Automatic annotation (TrEMBL):
<dbReference type="Pfam" id="PF03466">
    <property type="entry name" value="LysR_substrate"/>
</dbReference>
<feature type="domain" description="HTH lysR-type">
    <location>
        <begin position="11"/>
        <end position="68"/>
    </location>
</feature>
<keyword id="KW-0238">DNA-binding</keyword>
<dbReference type="InterPro" id="IPR005119">
    <property type="entry name" value="LysR_subst-bd"/>
</dbReference>
<dbReference type="InterPro" id="IPR058163">
    <property type="entry name" value="LysR-type_TF_proteobact-type"/>
</dbReference>
<protein>
    <submittedName>
        <fullName>LysR family glycine cleavage system transcriptional activator</fullName>
    </submittedName>
</protein>
<comment type="similarity">
    <text>Belongs to the LysR transcriptional regulatory family.</text>
</comment>
<keyword id="KW-0805">Transcription regulation</keyword>
<dbReference type="InterPro" id="IPR000847">
    <property type="entry name" value="LysR_HTH_N"/>
</dbReference>
<keyword id="KW-0804">Transcription</keyword>
<dbReference type="GO" id="GO:0043565">
    <property type="term" value="F:sequence-specific DNA binding"/>
</dbReference>
<dbReference type="InterPro" id="IPR036390">
    <property type="entry name" value="WH_DNA-bd_sf"/>
</dbReference>
<dbReference type="GO" id="GO:0006351">
    <property type="term" value="P:DNA-templated transcription"/>
</dbReference>
<dbReference type="InterPro" id="IPR036388">
    <property type="entry name" value="WH-like_DNA-bd_sf"/>
</dbReference>
<dbReference type="Pfam" id="PF00126">
    <property type="entry name" value="HTH_1"/>
</dbReference>
<dbReference type="GO" id="GO:0003700">
    <property type="term" value="F:DNA-binding transcription factor activity"/>
</dbReference>
Length: 309
């Protein structure tokens, strides 16, 4: 067994622990019971400490002990030092217990739905350090670039190395600003859409799905293709054309009167146009991953009218 050289200036830790307990309890016997050592062992540690300091720390009586003036001063400093060590230890353990989680998603989902609800997740899971990665790029979740991806579209495909959970099947319907509806041309039936610019993202698969349900041929439509759905929504609010409304992301604008849902009798729901949670097929879900996916699934299932807090 290897022995560590003792410090020339610091007393042995067992002696300090015995002194702190005996000084706090004013009893060698009770200190021994707390430290799970004998009373004589406590007395030995105290004597060793007094010898190293060159000063008496206790006055021994037949029925107990009291601290000397030097002992009382020293006890205050030792207790403060132990408190500092205990606090630092809690901090280090707390940091070690924290769990990191990186989630990738399209910016429109992050801005319009997730961001207002993040305070609820932080309150429910204060031990998880959540990093959000809003991006239009297709992040390599299977390769470990993110722990979880929130994808919009048809979900995981064979051979892509991903496992998926359906988060929300969106209800699709065109939307326009009240100003555009006032200006015209009128929008009474789906065919009237061909008289207006249609606001597309780079992959307008939701328009394709809705057009099939509405039995509308969009090949003759005027289109304005925009990079991100956030820009599509802003252009619609500004009256620049008609956007395809994704129910999960537009409810706030509908309630505020910034957008109006068109042809509400034709609402499309399909897992091919949905939000999916995806993660690498080759990995086991961590507790942090499971906690986030369970939380967001419950949030999405909550009534849309429930305001974030």
């Amino acid at each position: 067994m290897a022995f560590m050289r003792l410090s020339a200036t610091l007393p042995p830790l067992p002696a300090l622990r015995a002194f702190e307990a005996a000084g706090r309890l004013l009893s060698f016997r009770q200190a021994g019971e707390e430290l799970l050592i004998t009373q004589s062992a406590v007395s030995h540690h105290i004597r060793q400490l007094e010898d190293s300091l060159g000063v008496a720390l206790f006055i021994r009586h037949a029925r107990g002990v009291t601290l000397t003036t030097a002992g009382a001063r020293y006890l205050a400093v030792v207790c403060q030092a132990f408190d500092l060590i205990a606090g630092a230890t809690r901090d280090v353990r707390g940091q070690a217990a924290r769990r990191a989680l990186k989630v990738s998603m399209v910016p429109s989902f992050a801005a319009n739905w997730l961001a207002p609800r993040l305070a609820r997740f932080a309150a429910a899971h204060p031990d998880i350090d959540l990093t959000l990665d809003p991006t239009l790029d297709r992040v390599d979740v299977a390769g470990g670039a993110a722990d979880i991806g929130i994808r919009y579209g048809p979900g995981p495909q064979p051979g892509d190395g991903l496992v998926g959970r359906l988060l929300h099947m969106d209800r699709l319907a065109p939307v326009a600003s009240p100003d555009l509806l006032r200006r015209g041309p009128p929008l009474r039936v789906p065919a009237d859409l061909l008289a207006h610019p249609l606001l597309f993202t780079l992959r307008p698969f939701e328009w394709d799905a809705w057009a099939v349900a509405a039995q509308l041929d969009l090949r003759g439509a005027r289109t304005l293709q925009l990079t991100d759905y956030n820009i599509v929504l802003q252009a619609a609010v500004d009256g620049q054309g008609v956007a395809m409304g994704r129910a999960l992301l537009i409810e706030d604008r509908i309630r505020a009167g910034l957008l109006v849902r068109l042809f509400p009798g034709i609402l499309v729901e399909t897992p091919r146009v949905a939000h999916w949670l995806v993660w690498a097929e080759a990995r086991t879900c961590t507790p942090a991953m499971t906690a986030f996916m369970d939380w967001i699934t419950a949030e999405v299932a909550a009534p849309l009218v429930a305001p974030p807090v």
